[in-house]
Structures are given as structure tokens and as C-alpha cells.
Amino acid sequence: MKITDLQLEDYGIYKKVSIKPPQNQLVVVMGQNESGKTTLLHFIRDMLFGFSRGNWKGRKGNMAFIRSNGDTYRLFRHEKDTCFIDAANEKYTEELPELWWHGLTRSMYEHIFAVGLEDLQGTRLLTDESVKSRFFMMQGGDHLNDAKEVVQKQMGDLLIASLQGKRKINMLLLKKRELDQEISLLSTQETKFAVLQKRQSEVTEQLKTLKNDLKNKRDTYRALGKRLGAWEYYKKAKEIKRGLDLSKEVKVFPSNGKEQWNKLMGRMKVIHEQKEALQGKIDSYTPKQKEQIIPWVGLEQELEQLYVDLGQWKQTLLDGEDLSHQRDAWCKEHSHLGYTLSLWGEPLNPSEEWKSINWEDGRLLAKGVSIRQNELHFWEQREPHIEELPDIQTDKGIITDEKEWNAFENNAIRLEELIREESNLSKNLIILRKEAEKKYTIWFWMGFVLLMVATAGIGAFFAAFSGTIALYIAAGCLGVGIFFLFINAMISRLKNNKLHKALNAQSALAGERENIVDELPVEAPESEEDLQTFHNVLQEMRSTFYQTQASLQALSWKKETIRQQEETHNQWKAEGELLKKAKTEAINRWEEWLTHNKLPVVPAEKLSQLQEEWQKIYASKGKGKIIDALIEKNKKQLQVFEERAICIINVTGVNLSVHPETIAGIYEENRNRSLQWQSISEKNKQHEVFLSEMKKIEKDWNTCQKEMQTLMDFVHATTAEEFAERVTAHEHHDQLLKDWANIKQDLRFYAGSDEEYHKLWTSLQTGQYDTWMTSYEQLKVQIEEGDIQLAALQKEAGALENEIFRLAKDESITKKLQERQEIISDLQMLLCDWMKYKYTDYLIAQAQKKYEIGKRPAVLKQANEFLQAMTANKYSLVVNEEGDDVVLVDKTHNRKNDRIWSSGTGDQVYLSIRLAMALAFGKQVETLPIVLDDIFVRFDEDRQRQTLRFLMELGKEQQIFLFTCHKRTMEIAQEVGKELQTGAFIRLQSGQVVTDFNTSSNNL
Questions:
Q1: How much is the pTM?
Q2: Are residues 802 and 872 in the same domain?
Q3: How many CB atoms lie within 10 A of CB 944?
Q4: Which residues are listed as membrane-spanning (predicted)?
Q5: Domain range for 756
Q6: Which of 297, 446, 454, 550 allows an S-S link to 478, with CB 3.0 to 4.6 Å?
Q7: Which of 585, 617, 649 is the endpoint of a domain?
């Protein structure tokens, strides 16, 4: 599968961004911090495996891809909704891992296909069962792993290694332990049985006593209840009996006597009222003459008119005084108003004039000041933070430069080789010195014989014993003999030559060793015995160097970050200076406006308060002007009234003050005396009429008294109240007799019998109602408490009886023993099942190992090829059968374990393994895009260049995304891409693709 289009519709900082990566080139994506690089990386993973839980809200996007068989699809993810369509627009809702990738998990993808720096260290994935099932086994090996997980789950359902486990075997073991405890407790039941019997006897005795006491109280309670219930009947009976007694005393009474009585009562009441009213009138008056009432006459009309206006005159005087007080109060209030207004804080001058103010101008100026203040406030809040640069101290003897470290490491390795070579030379010298010198070898004797033959041949030739043939033979033997003698000479000098070469080599090695020892910052080993100590020192220095390198790298990144922060902070300060200047100008314009309008200098945010307080002052000043106008009007009205009063007082000839009260006194005196005379004149006439009427009323009163006394004599009554009672009883005599019979019958029914009736009547006649009620309430409470106590005792007695009965016939211990035996049987069956699952798990594990045999070597072989390509054949890879130990072998066949690797070498090793596993998955299941995130942090430039060259070549077959935040890495990648004519390059900035280009002919 290869991605052809990424549509980031709404994902993090990306909004409607489209990226179309090529299929057969390495895609290098570079973006600094906050550019969206990590967000894009997460988007690719989310498209393949779905949004993670809790991170789906508001996210949506789609991705187009093509499979290895050429089919094209587009995948859509909108929050929780997921689907993909094929080229024919047929819709599918399955997830890709379940449909095509044999259940590949997101976590496994992120460790194999999406590799970050933290994922490159370690080989634990090689031993993970889920990894082996999909990467090292044959097609379908994941089914074995799934079967193993099912078996292990069934084992876990039966038993878990925990005391608090809730599995079947755990629960049975827990239940067996509880049964053992219960069986132990059942042995103590005999003692409990005796204690229960004793308590049962005590409870029975208490119940008997309590029941007798409650019975007596209930009897008394019912008796008192009867008395209290009959009390109302008794009171009613007493009233009826009294009415009967009164009716018996009336023997003869007229049939209309009551009507006559009522008429007399009404008539006498009217007469009495008339008499009292008339007597009061007669007593209240004595006849007088007119001369005694009015001593003068005159000026009535003038006085009457002025009196009519007297109220208005008084009100005008009061208004004048009130206005004067208001004026004084306003002056004080207006002056004090300055103290009450927080923005003035000084007394106000009542005579000062206040002009109108254009508050809209002030509001605009205040708004400008507020805007500048807000801008300055938000500017202060946006102050960029500058981190402090950490102080990293390194010892003087610690190597920090990578080239210096490489030189040191090469010297150390060379020193080891020199020590071993010196040791080998020393051993060879000892062996050479022990060898015997050989001056005459077989070659000497063979040469000597041939020389003798050559001499004989020459002699025979010259002696004419033979022809030229003898000369040729002699020449051949001479040449061969000389050659054999030369070989003998070489062999005889071989030991000396070897010794000389060995000594020269030893001297050269010693010189080279001394040069290396002078350059080493640590104590050099003298012999092979010191190499182990030297290795330990090297390992410690290597660890210190890598730690220092990591610290220096982090420090470099931190310096760059701080530089950017300082640059941002300087921009922030410059912006602040402009804002402060603008704020100062706005405040100056605001204060000039305040001064121009004679207003106190206050902050701009208090404009509303200033306007409100100014309006209070302006309103107070208006109030003062209104009071002044009213005072002037009042003075004019008073002047008119005083002129009219002076005219009246002068005409009367009396020396009086000009005041409303004076005029009111004159008018009132005149009116009173006039009215007094009219009243007296009328009263004189009425007085004679009242005297004649009084005589007639006295006569009617005496007649009524005689008639009333006659009626009272019929019923033998002395007072009117007694008369009314006797007459009423006489009229209702028959009804009272019926009521008396009914009440007696009700009391008999209530009592139950005549005997009880007489007892009840006798007790009711004592009249102790309050005492009965108190006793009744007390008995009610005592009975309720007794019932509660009785119920508790009865409940306890029942529980005791049940427990005694249960203990007497308890067969619990037998049942518990049977239940325990059943649990043991169940445990045996379940343990057999658990052992079956355990054995099955073992068989599946063995089968998995068999399956791994075919795939693991191929994967590791390809990883070895990848590593050789990345390191220019400097190293080869060896992994043990378990997959937990990785060893490197260099060109000289020296083995290096992971403890002495450099960090960059380790990253290359684990990167090659993961790439090989990813490609193995593609061959077995389906190819997936590989995503590499900042894997070059610990690489030097040469190693980056080698690895990028390898990735460029691999990217022609496998789609690979390489993310980095380092500009130099991007530059190296472009150089390598230009060299190989391949590669695609993308630059990101703030969620946008700002540069989209490559070095090849294919553009994104």
C-alpha cells in the first residue's frame, strides 16, 4: 500500500491542506518547532488506524492510497465516522488492519513502520510474541498466536496467582478455606446451647410479670376512659336538670306573657333613652340676654374677605421660611457635596457658575486611553519567557569533540592491536631463537653433486672423451647446481632474516606505541594482562563521552531556543515602547480636556463616575437657582397681604401687629360672638319645650313599671334575668324531659349496666376531671412503653426458641463436610483442565518456534544487507536465536557487542532491523508506508549521508517518509537526492506547505 494523497481538512493547526507524496521516492519533510511536523506524522497514523480515544472531536480528513495489486481507494475519517471507497465508489466500513493486515495494531505499527529516535534502541520487539507471529512466521502464523492468547485467557479464567483472585479455582480455594473455618466454629455449639436455655427461662419469667402488669394498667385505663368519655354527657345532663327544676316553680303564666314582657322592655328602653337625652339638654343650658354676648358691631365684610385669604397668607409666610431654610440647607449641602464626591474632595462654592460640558468628546478621549491601557496590559501579559541556559560543566580531561573522540578511539583500538602484535612477535622471536642454524641443507649437497658432474663433463669434453653433448650436460648441471647452492644460501640465512625482520617490526611497533601512548589522555596498558582494565576505562570514557555529547547537543538546541526567545523578547520590548508612547499621548489629551472644562484630573476609566458626580453638582446648582426664584416670588405675595391687613387694623382703631394670627383673632372673636348669640336665642326657645316634654315622659315610665311588676309576680321572680330563665324553662319543659330521658339512656348504654351506670354517675358527681385526664395520659404512655418492651421480649423469646430448636436439630457440620468434599472434587477437575491448557500452551509455543525457523534468518539477512549498505560494508550483523543479543563483526572479524557501540552505530543497527521487518511484513501481508521521525539526532554528517543514500535507494521500491526538524539534515538530503536524481522534499511552517519541491523530475 502506498499513499497518493493526504487531505487534512481539519486536523490540529492544519485547515484544508493537501499533500500528494510520490510513490517511488524518499519523502523528506522538514519543519521547525511548532510548524506542524509532529501533527502531520500523527495524521498519517490516525488515517491508518483511526483517531485515538478522546482525540477525535473536531478532527476530519481523508487519504487516498493504492494497493500492491493496483486497486485505488480513498479513506475518510470524520470524528467517529469512518469509511473508505474504491475506484467504483463502493463504500466499505471495515477497519484496514482487520480487513487486510491480519490485525496489525497501532502500537506495533508505531514500533516497526513509524520509527522515532526513542524506538531505535533495543531488540525487545524481536522476542515479542505478537511481532514474531506476524513478521517471523509463515502466512497465518498470527492465528497460532491468537490461539495461544485464547488458551492463556482460558487458563487465566481458571486460575490467577493472587490471593484476591476471582477465578474459578481461586474462588473454590477461598470457599474451601471458609468451610474449614466454619467446621472449626461448629464445634463450639454445645456451650452456646446451654447459655441459650438459661436465657430462655429468664425471658419467660419477665414476660409473665410484664403481661400481668399491663393487664392491670389496661383495666384502669379503660375505666378512666369511660369516665372521661361520659363527662360531656354529665355536664349536659346537669344543665337539663337545672332547667327542669326552674320550670317546676312556674305554676300559672299567661300565654302571651312573654310577648307582653318583651313589649314592655322595648317600650321602657325607649322611654329611658328619651328621658336621659332630654335631661341632658335641660341641664346643659341657662337662658341669657343678647347684650351679654355682642359688645360691638362693624367691619364684618372687610374682615370676612381677609379671613378667607388668611390661609393663603399663612402658607405664604411658611413658604418663605421654608424657602429660606432650603436656601441655607442648599448652600451647606452644595458646599459639602464636594467632600462626598470622591473625585473632587474639596468644598464647592455656591456662587460659582457651572457651564455645560461636551461629554462625548471626553468619552472618546477616555476610550482612547482605555484602549491604550488594554493594549499595554495585553502586551505585558504576552511577555515572552526566556529560559535560562543550564550550566554544563565538563572535566578538563573529558573529550567533548567527536573527531577528537574518534581519533582517541582509533588510537585505543590501534594500541590494543599493537600490544597483541608485540606479544605475538615476542613469542615468534623466542621460537626463532630456539631454532638451530642450518648451513648445509639438501639443496647444498644436490648443488655440490651437480657441480661435480658439470666439472666431469667439462673435463670429458676437453679430454675428448665426449662430444658437445657432454658440454651441454655440463652447462645444464652447472646452472642447476648454482641455483641449488643459491637456495641453500637463502635457507641458511632465513633465520637471521626472520630475526632481523621481527626485531625491526618490534622496534617499529614500540615506536608507534610510544607515539600513541603520548597522545592518550589515560594510562596506557603495558601488556595483554592490562587490556581488561584498559577496556573498562575505555567503556567508562565512552559512556561519559556519549553523555557529554547528549548534554552538548541539548545545550546547542537550548541555545538556539533561547536565541529565538531573546529575539522575540526584543521585538516585544520595541512594541511596548510604542504602546507606552501612545498611552502617554492619550493621557495628555485626556488631562488637557479635564483642565479646559475645570474638572479634577482623574483616570480615564473613571469618566462615568466623573460625569455622574458632575451631574450631581449641576443638578444641585439648578436646585439653588429654583429656590432663589421662589424666594423672590414669595416676597411679592407677602407685601400684598401686609398692605390689606394694615388697612383693617387701622379702621378698628386697635394697635395690633400686622400678622395673620392677629386678623384670625379679630375674625374668630367676631364670628364666635355672632354665632353664640344665635345659639343662645334658639336655646332659650328650646328650653321651654324640653321642660314640658320631660313631664310627659315621667308619666309613661311609671305606667310601664306597674305592668312589668304584675308579670314578675306570676313567676315569682325578683329580677329580669331570673324572670327570663324561669319563662324559658317553662316553655321548654317537655323538651327538657325528653332530653333528660335520652341522656340517662345514653349514659346507661355507655356504662353497660345499671350497676355500672350508678357507679359511673357517682364518680362523675365528684368532678375530678383534671385528675382523671392526667392519670389517663400517664397510663397511656406506660402501656405503650410496656407494649414495646413486651414485643422486644417476645421477639427475643422467639429467636431463642428458634435458635435452640435449630441447634437441637442442626446437621450443618455434616452438610459442611459434604460441601467440602464436593469442592475438592471440583478443584481436581478444574486443575486437570488447567493442566490441559498449560500443555496446549507449551505445544503452541513449540510450534511457533518451528514456524520462526523459516522467516527469522531471511529477515536478519536482509537487515544485515541494509546495515552493510548504510556503513559501506564496515560492519555485518549477528543475532542469537532468542533475538535478544545483537553483535557486530567488522572487516577484521572482531566482534563488538552493543555495550561498546557508538550511539550512531546503534541507531543504524536497529534501523536496519526494523526496516527489514517492515519489508518482510510487506512480502508476507502487504507493504505499508514507513515513517521515520528525527532518527539522525545522533548521526554525524558522514553517517547521515551514508544512511540517506541507502534510504534514497530503498525509497524507489518502498514508500518512506523522513521527518526532521534540522535544516542541515534537509540540506544533506537534497545533496544526496541531487546526486542520485531521486527524492522529494517538503518544508512546513505553521500548518502550511510553504515549499514543495524535489531534485528529481517528479514533483509532488
A1: 0.36
A2: no
A3: 20
A4: 442-463, 469-491
A5: 190-253+729-808
A6: 454
A7: 617
